[in-house]
Amino acid sequence: xxxxxxxGYGKVDRNALxxxxxxxxxxxxxxxxxxxxxxxTVTAGGGQISLTMNGKYEVQRVEIKPxxxxxxxxxLLEDLLAAAVNEAVRVVKETQESEMNTLTSxxxxxxxxxx
Length: 115
Known about the structure:
Elements: H1 14-37, E1 39-44, E2 49-54, E3 59-64, H2 74-104
Antiparallel strand pairs: 1-2, 2-3
């Protein structure tokens, strides 16, 4: 005896899927704008340098404490500044990836289907 499945069982509702996809696109655009405007502040050298970067990877502010400025050791200041920039880039990238993954994790296409 064959088992009978409800009519439409196993079929993909392409219209509903497209609506879900379009909503996700709108949500991604909105989130991208929000992430680009968001500012991230990091420190280096035990707080001797503070750097603020936005989500477009643009440095907004750099604050350097006077004790970090030693005319005899400019290389240390250069290293601290490079470390702060690298840390800010890492923080921005991780934040963006995490937020985008959260947004897109609920959108699963059935096997073999592409938009």
